[in-house]
Design goal:
The complex is a heterodimer of chains A (119) and B (115). Chain A has 119 residues and is mainly beta. Chain A is 0% helix and 51% strand. In chain A, strands 2, 4, 5, 6, 9, 10 and 11 form a seven-stranded mixed β-sheet that branches. A four-stranded antiparallel β-sheet of chain A has the order 1-3-8-7, with no helix packed on it. In chain A, a hairpin with a 2-residue loop joins strand 7 (67-73) and strand 8 (76-81). The N and C termini of chain A lie far apart (37 Å). Chain B is an all-beta fold. In chain B, the strands form three sheets. In chain B, strands 2, 5, 6, 10, 11 and 12 form a six-stranded mixed β-sheet that branches. A four-stranded antiparallel β-sheet of chain B has the order 3-9-8-7, with no helix packed on it. A two-stranded antiparallel sheet of chain B has the order 1-4. Classes of the chains: A mainly beta (119), B mainly beta (115). The A-B interface holds A 31-32, 34, 36, 41-46, 49, 93, 95, 97, 99-100, 105-108, 110-113, 115 and B 32, 34, 36, 41-44, 46, 49, 51, 90, 92, 94, 97-108, 110.
């Protein structure tokens, strides 16, 4: 099956610093990727849709200047948490569908997640 | 509008007894429906998916789900629970988004297994 990786798997940073999280589709091209945030004991909340070659689309209530998304290539999307604060501590997960016609039947392939802790 | 509702936030069963995790959906389109499992501090693993083929879908680890259009339900079942089934389970609906698909997560159901 299709594989999505994330790097790093965990990161601890000081308040005020910026953190970049990478999401890669390893064996398929993804023109669209999705970023989620999951707080402890809660469901995944869609933050934004990353589009290769164009601007990301953010869900309501998500600050686009705070969470910068860059879809640099057909296999890589990055999420940068700028000026991170303790309330940004969370589990960040990305996903990517197979291209239309790729036989994926709308299935999303998820990365393993990145745990961010802001001190 | 599309939505998915998991009716139970927490389900507890004894090992060896059946499991039922309930999910209802709302979709303007013919939905694609999924169940994912998440073990503590781990990523999401696909259990099974419904994509307009057979209404009874068999997944991994003995799980299965039945798509019932009349009831807009997609409940997850397993005949006999194992201790290793203890995890968080998410029902997911997929909706068209441009040339790809966007998914909407249910709130999750935590499954506990009693020895």
């Amino acid at each position: 099956g299709a594989v999505v990786s994330q790097h790093p798997s965990w990161v601890i940073c000081k308040s005020g610093t910026s953190v970049k999280i990478e999401c890669r589709s390893l064996d398929f091209q993804a023109t669209t990727m999705f970023w989620y945030r999951q707080f402890p004991k809660q469901s995944l909340m869609l933050m934004a849709t990353s589009n290769e070659g164009s601007k990301a689309t953010y869900e309501q209530g998500v600050e686009k200047d705070k969470f910068l998304i860059n879809h640099a290539s057909l296999t890589l999307s990055t999420l940068t948490v700028t000026s991170a604060h303790p309330e940004d501590s969370s589990f960040y997960i990305c996903s990517a569908p197979l291209p239309a016609g790729g036989g994926g039947n709308n299935e999303q392939f998820f990365g393993p997640g990145t745990r961010l802790t802001v001190l | 509008a599309q939505s998915v509702t998991q009716l139970d936030s927490h389900v507890s069963v004894s090992e060896g007894t059946p499991v039922l995790l309930r999910c209802n959906y709302s979709s303007s389109y013919s939905p694609s429906l999924f169940w994912y499992v998440q073990h503590p501090n781990k990523g999401l693993q696909l259990l099974l998916k419904y994509t307009s083929a057979a209404t009874l879908v068999k997944g991994i680890n003995g799980f299965e789900a039945e798509f019932k259009k009349s009831e807009t339900s997609f409940h997850l079942t397993k005949p006999s629970a194992h201790m290793s089934d203890a995890a968080e389970y998410f029902c997911v609906v997929s909706v068209p988004y441009s040339s790809a698909s966007k998914i909407i997560f249910g709130s999750g159901t935590r499954l506990s297994i009693r020895p």
